[in-house]
Amino acid sequence: MNCPGLARNRSRTGRFESLLDALLTAEEDECIEVTRDCWTCGWHEACQVRLESIKMSEGDEINDDLAAVDSLTTLEAVRAEIRRQ
Question: Which InterPro entries match (predicted)?
Fold first, then answer.
């Protein structure tokens, strides 16, 4: 049954958080429990998601490049050049 009212998601730690945040902070082989409750009609739904593997594809290159920068001056010069372009 679909709820006719507004529902809120509760996941992982029991706090209200977005499902995206719960997925991005999860560990491999972790089970995330998501519940939806409507405070208007009392409707309730629960679902469990288990992450079998995590593959990060974007952002790793930037982090690797940033870790390789050993000088704050170099980093500031690169940032200034990017803003100029």
Answer: DUF8105
pTM, two decimals, is 0.44
Angstrom distance (rounded) from CA 47 to CA 11: 10
Q: State the average pLDDT over residues 27-51.
A: 82
- Helices (runs of H) and strands (runs of E) counted in the chain: 3, 3
**Burial grade of 11 (CB within 10 A; 0-12, 13-18, 19 or more):** buried
Find the domain containing 27 and state its range: 7-50
In a domain, 73, yes or no: no
